[in-house]
Amino acid sequence: MACEQKSPYQKLLEEELASGERYDSLFLGLEFGMTSKGFYGTCWQMNKEGKIRQGTRNATVVYDLGDQLPHSAKMDFYPKFHKDKIFEMPVVFRYDGWSPWNRDLWSDSLQVDVVHLLEEWHGKGFIEADHPELGTAFVKIDGNRRIAITMLDDQLVKVTYTDMSVDRPTPEAAPVKEVD
Fold it and tell me: Is the whole model's pTM more than 0.85, yes or no?
């Protein structure tokens, strides 16, 4: 019987989950476990105060990062809910001045800048890992909270906050129809 070798990532994930510690804080006062009503109420108030605005087709929330990164940038986000509570928060970062000829604002530079920003928000401890589809990723796991930073393309960087203690929902199987 062969022994299964665990990756450093898998070992870290198991250790952090076993610690029983909870890190529910995301950003802008949003957190894991927040209900949809709480999320919408918080966003409504921030919109009223001019801190955020509606994203493309009202499908996301946009936050202008101001001077938090080396160049003007925005982040778009919208949570995933399970049993009416936030369990995952996908976020997309982009530099406002991105263009194919402006190489300094491409996602490879943005990814490094986002790592530094999230270290300010959540502390140091990101490790570099290989994502099977998206290349280099930076990952930090604190208790239940995993933060993964990947490049989507030449312009966009995706950050995914995931509460690893939540049994993630699985898509419902399509009903099986009997054929006569």
Answer: yes
